[in-house]
């Protein structure tokens, strides 16, 4: 991608990745992702974060196109994950006098991933680095998304270089600023990036939001996705809602099913919920939909009902994968229902009960387990489960 001005002598160097199928080799990115780096040209030339390694050649060329033969003085490392530090070694090799700017946790990562850094400048919260006309102020925001993560606030134009925070999946297809693009496209991509990558660290995100609140931010330049310069509230409001587990009225139902019996149980629950006035109901087959999308809806809706058949005396494997992801992310404030099916000695519901114990969400009804095809007695139980869930939700969202 060509370089673009954010402000006088501040350049966006962003690269679109439409080749990678799985971000972190886990999460599907059918619409790709961008890696955004920033360059400030002043008395001291400064890079803020780099890019993923597959873009090194064009990245170095773009930098040279802007600064010619001048050396880069500083590389500010907001975040060391290799999707942003992938070009670090190439930058240091090309500009050996460069000083790496980071906090006390940053340089240990530099050493473990790349090399023992030679020239370093350690910063602490509120420290300022003078570049000439531009001043950079630093604030650590640990665990959003790694322990060393910090943000850099450019005080002349009030630009927050925010690292992963406020980032998004999805490439930048021409437009890079929020006012140049239809944000409908990014609605799910911003949320999936948040829930998939940062969602485990909601309390840390809340602390970061509060810590950054006093800054007079006029532009947010993240390391992925659009740059926010017109409607900052669009992304700030959403981040605040998601990271505070502020859930909407609705139910996510997930099931695993080999021959359709557990699916039938899910359909009974879904229909009854609709009859009881619940309008947001999302039913997923755990074998069909990647947990990236399901976890996203779990961060949206307060109700969660999960069903599993027994599979060799255990949970159905794809349900197990999803539940492991949920336990790992540990979102809060949900209501839970569990059900399942077995052919001989069970294993589905037995393990769903263990999930319920671990996740500690309020169970709205007792676990329900059918043997083989769905029969009248169990169907009645499923209706009661749906009724109990609907009642809880109506009470909460009066
Ligand atoms: Fe985009 Fe945590 O790296």
Automatic annotation (TrEMBL):
- InterPro entries from the xrefs? Flavodoxin/NO_synth, Flavodoxin_CS, Flavoprotein-like_sf, Metallo-B-lactamas, ODP_dom, RibonucZ/Hydroxyglut_hydro, Rubredoxin-O_OxRdtase
Q: What is the recorded name of this protein?
A: Flavorubredoxin
Q: Which PANTHER family match?
A: ANAEROBIC NITRIC OXIDE REDUCTASE FLAVORUBREDOXIN (PTHR43717:SF1)
Q: Which family does it belong to?
A: In the N-terminal section; belongs to the zinc metallo-hydrolase group 3 family.
Flavodoxin-like domain mapped to chain residues: 251-390
CDD domains in UniProt: flavodiiron_proteins_MBL-fold
Organism phylogeny: Bacteria, Pseudomonadati, Bacteroidota, Bacteroidia, Marinilabiliales
What is the superkingdom listed in this entry's lineage?
Bacteria
Pfam families cross-referenced by the UniProt entry = Flavodoxin_1, ODP
UniProt-recorded Gene Ontology molecular function terms = electron transfer activity; FMN binding; metal ion binding; oxidoreductase activity
Q: Name the SMART domains on file.
A: Lactamase_B
